[in-house]
Amino acid sequence: MCSEVCSEETDEMEATRQQRCERRIGYVFKNKELLREALTHASSAEHRLASNERLEFLGDAILGAVVCELLFLRYPDYLEGDLTKIKSAVVSRETCSRISRELGLIDFLIVGKGMSVHRPVPNSVLSDMFESLIAAIYLDGGIEPARVFLERWVGPEIEKVIS
Question: Which residue among 60, 128, 140, 157 is the active-site one?
Fold first, then answer.
């Protein structure tokens, strides 16, 4: 009896947690499992394929492509080398982890034994989480919602580097 009731309560808490995350990032998922996967660190996953690692791989590529496109279109007078330097700063682990912190994504990170969200979480984990979220948005809604999300959160980072 308790396992069924406890499971229902856990499911409700998870749904509420996901809704809070969606409000924070400004995107509502059609496929809630994509969001869950994006928030799941390997330490919590039943197996590594159930973690955010594969999404992080895709998100890294989408982040790079969208930032390159933004730079290319916004700065037509910049040379390739200048664009490359700006892109490198904007898509860096440091920048992605900082955006994760600004978004408060740590509140939604799903971790397992041996890792705690109460001690400093490594920048690599926060950066990977941001990139996996980009991929989840892309897979759920396509490139346009991913681009809107990135313009909102990465656009100001481009301006900081340019200034």
Answer: 60
Tokens of 143: 């490139």
Calpha distance 160→15 (Å, rounded): 36
- Could you tell me which residues are beta bridge partners of residue 110? 40
d(C-alpha 131, C-alpha 62), whole Å: 8
Establish whether 77 is a catalytic residue: no
**Is 131 a residue of the active site?**
yes
Helix (H, G, I), strand (E, B) or coil at 75: coil
Which member of 37, 56, 128, 131 is catalytic? 131
Which of 59, 47, 49 has its CA nearest to residue 100?
59
Instruction: Look at residue 102 and tell me whether its pLDDT is greater than 70.
Output: yes
pTM: 0.86
Q: How far apart are CA 121 and CA 109, in angstroms?
A: 10
Specify burial of residue 11 (Cβ count, 10 A radius: 0-12, 13-18, 19+). exposed
Q: Mind listing the pLDDT tens digit for each residue in 123-163?
A: 998 999 999 999 999 999 999 999 999 999 999 999 999 98
Asked whether 111 and 44 are in contact (CB, 8 A), the reply is yes
